[in-house]
Design goal:
protein dimerization activity, Rossmann fold, 14 strands, Aspartate-semialdehyde dehydrogenase, single chain, NADP, 26% helix, 364 residues
Length: 364
């Protein structure tokens, strides 16, 4: 009998669910025992439920092909066979909020890729390298839910991963005004070029809801846990972010161009030093999916590039380049992160690894 924690994947047939399936193959701590999706897929084997809809450029792992898919709505049945679940369900936000709380109330921790609970005040929204202390709010959430081990934790939006790490590394210099444009891969919409041929040779200058997430979510990441209120209070200092989000004909990898003003006056050498020497609790804990070096700084004028850099540190690292002084703002730079690894399933998996390491996720 394996001593690994038993994991369920909610929304296992979608693109993020597929990414969870591949990342969890032979994981040292976790073992997938349950797959759940919509009623349409329930009762079929995973291979049958996927049909011709496997979206990744790596093959479907053999270990899941014959597993029977459960109905995600059968909460008690799914929860009975797992220690915790990853959530990547495709529902309305109200439905996601409700079903994730329903799972949590069965004493099953939920680590969610979805956005529905990102602004629930007592739900931690964590990048493990930046704000793991926000997991402290879980004790307050459990009181609200009436649970002893069940809770919900989420990861932030994929679009902020390409620039928020740099702002975190430069916290001592007090970033103030930030203007960011993100150039986002089509896999962020759960699609590939076969699904979305209109994207070939095209850009779309609108992604619904994305600009608000890009502007607001870093403020929650940089916030703090208010023990008296039992919630996370977003950062209320001088930092303001404005953004534009554009869909571009790239399969994987979100690129950001960023202009930033600081309250203090760092030199380029200081900025680069803080990037390359950035350390985190995630690396110290030796989490299986924590990059050894979270941020790499590239000196070449034509980097970072998706083709060359998106898979840095197995897709879990962040690449920064083209740092230079600006004629209007203080500094400008370009960032790149893998949106379905660092930004989605991989980020959620690393959150689960940290939650296990910190004792929040245990065997039932």
């Amino acid at each position: 009998m394996s001593d690994k924690l038993k994991v369920g994947i909610l929304g296992a047939t979608g693109m993020v669910g597929q990414r969870f399936v591949t990342l969890l193959e032979n994981h040292p701590w976790f073992e997938v025992t349950t797959l759940a999706a919509s009623a349409h897929s329930a009762g079929k084997t995973y291979e049958e439920a996927i049909g011709g809809r496997w979206k990744l450029d790596v093959p479907m792992p053999d270990y899941v092909k014959g597993m029977t898919v459960h109905n995600v709505a059968d909460v008690a049945e799914v929860a009975a066979g797992v220690d915790f679940v990853f959530s990547a369900v495709n529902m309305s936000k109200d439905e996601i909020r409700a079903i994730e709380e329903e799972y949590a109330k069965t004493e099953t921790p939920v680590v969610s890729n979805n956005s529905a609970h990102r602004w629930t005040p007592d739900v931690p929204m964590v990048v493990p390298e930046i704000n793991p202390q926000h997991f402290d709010v879980i004790e307050h959430q459990r009181k609200r839910l009436g649970t002893t081990r069940g809770f919900i934790a989420v990861k932030p939006n994929c679009s902020i991963q390409a620039y928020t790490p740099a702002l975190a590394a430069w916290k001592e210099f007090e970033p103030r005004e930030v203007v960011v444009s993100t150039y986002q891969a089509i896999s962020g919409a759960g699609k590939n070029f076969q699904d979305w041929p209109e994207m070939v040779g095209n850009i779309i200058p609108f992604i619904s809801g994305e600009e608000e997430k890009s502007e607001k979510e870093p403020l929650k990441v940089f916030g703090h846990v208010d023990a008296d209120k039992g919630e996370i209070v977003p950062f209320d200092g001088g930092l303001k972010i404005t953004s534009q989000c554009i869909r571009v004909p790239v399969l994987n990898g979100h690129t950001a161009t960023v202009f930033v003003n600081f309250a203090k006056n760092p030199t380029k050498e200081e900025l680069v030093d803080r990037l390359v020497n950035y350390t985190s609790r995630a690396a110290e804990l030796g989490l299986p999916h924590a990059p050894k070096q979270f941020i790499q700084y590239l000196q070449e004028d034509n980097r970072p590039q998706v083709a060359l850099d998106v898979d840095y540190e197995g897709g879990m690292g962040v690449s920064i380049g083209r740092l230079r002084e600006d004629s209007i703002f203080d500094w400008k730079f370009v960032g790149l992160a893998h949106n379905t690894l660092r930004g989605a399933a991989g980020g959620a998996l690393e959150c689960a690894e940290m939650l296990k390491a910190l004792g929040y996720i245990t065997a039932k």
